[in-house]
Hints:
This protein has helices at residues 16-35, 49-56, 61-66, 85-94, 138-155, 170-186, 193-201, 215-220, 230-245, 290-293, 308-317, 340-352, 366-376, 386-390, 413-421; strands spanning 39-40, 46-48, 68-71, 77-80, 103-112, 124-133, 161-166, 251-252, 266-271, 280-286, 301-307, 330-334, 357-359, 380-384, 393-398, 406-409. By secondary structure, the protein is α+β, with helices and mostly antiparallel strands. Histidyl-adenosine monophosphate is lined by residues 83-85, 113, 115, 121-122, 125, 127, 129, 131, 259-260, 280-285, 287, 303-305, 307, 309-310.
Amino acid sequence: MSKTIQAVRGMNDLLPDVVARWQRIEAAARTVLAAYGYREIRLPLVEKTELFARSIGGLTDIVEKEMYTFEDRNGELLTLRPEGTAGCVRAGIENGLLHNQVQRLWYAGAMFRHERPQKGRYRQFHQIGVEAFGIGTPDLDAELILLCARLWRALGIRGLTLELNSLGTSETRAAYRRVLVAYLERHRSVLDEDSQRRLEKNPLRVLDSKNPAMQEIIRGAPSLADHLDDASRVHFKRLCEHLASADVAYTLNPRLVRGLDYYTGTVFEWTTDRLGAQSAVCAGGRYDGLVELLGGQATPAAGFALGLERLAELLALDASETGDGQAPQVYLAVLDEAVRAPALKLAESLRDRGWRIECHGGSGSLKAQLKRADKSGARFALLLGPDEVARAAVSVKDLRGDAEQTTVALNLIGDYLKQKLA
Ligand code: HAM
């Protein structure tokens, strides 16, 4: 036998049992997004590398270390999308969706980052992303957060923490950056290697260090909140008021800086303490400068993306799953190859009436077929053999109850199932 080929590290197969949970999340998200007027957009998996370098920022971990970038056959530099916002903005500009308009959009799909894989962190992962364009006021920030809260309720997810911060305008950040760098320079000797590197390139990211040894330095650092410009301060205050009046609890986290450079003003993350180190299940914020940076007219914008793997993992912890609505309702056992043709006909006629029927394939003893029927999750097994066909009937076995096996005329079986399964 030749050696088996395995999946690429960090890229997972999603087996049918897991997919059922994902579909539950996707269906709930679809309903909630429609309730707020968001419409789906579908975007390419591959974009020009330049798009991500310009929007996420050349000095971020994503662009520096994590992108799957390659030259195609024409020598063009392309990248598998590491996130969806940049592509969504690109598509919005390119298709004339953004200028002087309000757009509420969402997308779902695979993203790729060459991170070190661990529980909750993968190299191919999936997001549902939500982006709103054309509204610069804090009610939109609140809308995005309320939408998330409604989705958690719809999924029965409790116990997430909403962390909030404001990064101010890019001018505010530039001024704060100078103050922060001066502070960090004074403590350079105790900065770990990673923070020293970040200090050179992207000093705000030092605040994001998870190294316990760095926490004291970080706690003592000047706070961005004390350097916010007036407009950002008012915007953030309004958002907090909106959330309070909608009874959404939040925690202010002045160290929340996010790993992508396009944010301005509000940033937020929904976190959990139930998934280990990868605690963020959903994250986003305002990016009022990005449309212009990518060549469009200046347009305020905000959005977020949730991580489907992490959310599904969270749901699995409380699994009180009641089936996925996809198991067959009826398993059709075919007791003799001679009745294959009427069996197929029966299965088709029941599908015409909307039932989910799994038909036994190949041969097998009655016992083996009933074992399969039980495993399939079906409520009833229909047994069809030469005797039944001769009588224009089918035997019915209730797989989940203790009712006696019974025989039903073929022309009445649809009505029988309707009565039993309704
Ligand atoms: P992000 O924080 O990089 O933001 O990713 C959003 C979410 O995707 C994370 O909170 C996490 O749940 C999930 N995620 C990220 N990386 C991984 C990974 N390697 N494995 C599994 N899950 C992961 C963005 O991507 C922004 N585009 C969000 C946004 C939209 N901001 C504005 N609009």
